[in-house]
């Protein structure tokens, strides 16, 4: 959820960059990188790599099943890809590169490296560093922008999968350990949010009602693959909005002393440390924040 409306200047700048960059790297050419195929097929070869199921490829590339099947058949017809039954799951089909496909991918990667090197060669070392840093920031922000946060049932498979990952991580980080029995029971959770990146659950947070005016945030967690994007803060903000929408005036949370990065995020997010409350045996710091309706 955006915190403010998007300005036309931001939209225009992003669209201008998209037009320039897609033309500059040859996206519009049916012979991408000088090879006899469009970018879509070249990208599919890259994604298949050491092997991937068609289901995984559909999710990863966001492609329609029919369109993906047509591309795979085209690459099969050229002798670059073979499709077999997945050895671990007979319901899945596995796409793998043939020796010819691996040779073409190697050549494709060489040409792509040459293209990138050519783009960078016109810049000084300082400019290259600036561009590399800017591209890394752009990638992180675009990933964060593409993530959706949705309410789900606290006992749903995605919620339980996130909580299992949360508990396993804390069990490894807390000196006293952490068990799944330490999790808040689903029936005590008033709202549960899950963050999705390309339909994969990559973060979560729970909201519990302490009383009519106060809500508590529990089990705020981000999958290691999605860290460094700012997703933790976004989930925190979404939980605060959810609490405000339910009529709560204050939100509380606690954290373990070893989770220093979490405590730092709460402090910079407007939370004030308060005396202990509740019965969480793993808590060492307690925080509170007033909500603005």
Ordered list of secondary-structure elements with their pairings:
Layout: H1 8-24, H2 39-48, E1 52-53, H3 54-61, H4 65-77, E2 81-85, E3 93-97, H5 99-121, H6 125-146, E4 148-152, H7 157-173, E5 191-197, E6 200-209, E7 214-222, H8 231-245, E8 250-255, H9 260-268, E9 272-274, E10 285-290
Parallel strand pairs: 7-8
Antiparallel strand pairs: 1-3, 2-3, 4-5, 5-6, 6-7, 8-10, 9-10
Describe this structure as you would to a colleague:
The strands form 2 sheets. Strands 4-5-6-7-8-10-9 form a 7-stranded mixed sheet, sandwiched between helices. A 3-stranded antiparallel sheet has the order 1-3-2. Helix content is 46%, strand content 20%. The model has no long low-confidence stretch (mean pLDDT 94). The protein is α+β, with helices and mostly antiparallel strands and 293 residues long. It has helices spanning 8-24, 39-48, 54-61, 65-77, 99-121, 125-146, 157-173, 231-245, 260-268, and strands at 52-53, 81-85, 93-97, 148-152, 191-197, 200-209, 214-222, 250-255, 272-274, 285-290.
Task: Provide mean pLDDT, rounded.
Answer: 94
Low-confidence stretches: none
Which structural category fits the helices and strands?
alpha+beta
Q: Tell me the distance between the termini.
A: 16 Å
Major sheet: 7 strands, mixed
Principal-axes geometry comes out as: globular
Annotation keywords:
alpha+beta, 9 helices
């Amino acid at each position: 959820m955006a915190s403010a409306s998007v300005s036309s200047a931001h939209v225009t700048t992003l669209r201008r960059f998209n037009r320039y960059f897609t033309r500059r790297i040859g996206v519009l050419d049916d012979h991408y990188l000088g090879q006899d195929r469009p970018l879509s097929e070249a990208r599919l070869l890259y994604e298949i790599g050491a092997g991937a199921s068609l289901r995984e490829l559909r999710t990863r590339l966001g492609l329609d099943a029919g369109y993906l099947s047509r591309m795979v058949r085209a690459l099969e017809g050229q002798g670059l890809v073979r499709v077999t039954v997945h050895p671990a799951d007979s319901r899945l089909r596995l796409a793998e590169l043939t020796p010819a496909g691996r040779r073409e991918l190697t050549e494709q990667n060489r040409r792509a490296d040459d293209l990138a090197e050519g783009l960078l060669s016109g810049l000084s070392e300082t400019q290259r560093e600036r561009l590399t840093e800017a591209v890394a920031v752009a990638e992180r922000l675009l990933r964060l922008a593409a993530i959706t946060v949705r309410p789900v049932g606290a006992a749903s498979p995605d919620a339980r999968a996130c909580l299992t990952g949360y508990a396993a991580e804390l069990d490894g980080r807390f000196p006293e350990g952490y068990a799944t029995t330490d999790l808040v029971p689903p029936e005590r959770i008033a709202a549960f949010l899950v963050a999705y990146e390309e339909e994969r659950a990559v973060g979560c947070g729970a909201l519990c009602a302490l009383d009519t005016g106060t809500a508590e945030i529990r089990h705020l967690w981000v999958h290691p693959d999605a860290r460094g994007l700012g997703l933790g803060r976004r989930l925190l903000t979404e939980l605060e909005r959810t609490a405000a929408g339910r009529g709560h005036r204050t939100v509380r949370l606690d954290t373990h002393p070893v989770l220093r990065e979490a405590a730092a995020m709460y402090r910079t997010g407007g939370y004030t440390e308060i005396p202990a409350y509740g019965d969480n045996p793993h808590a060492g710091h307690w925080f509170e924040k007033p909500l603005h309706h």
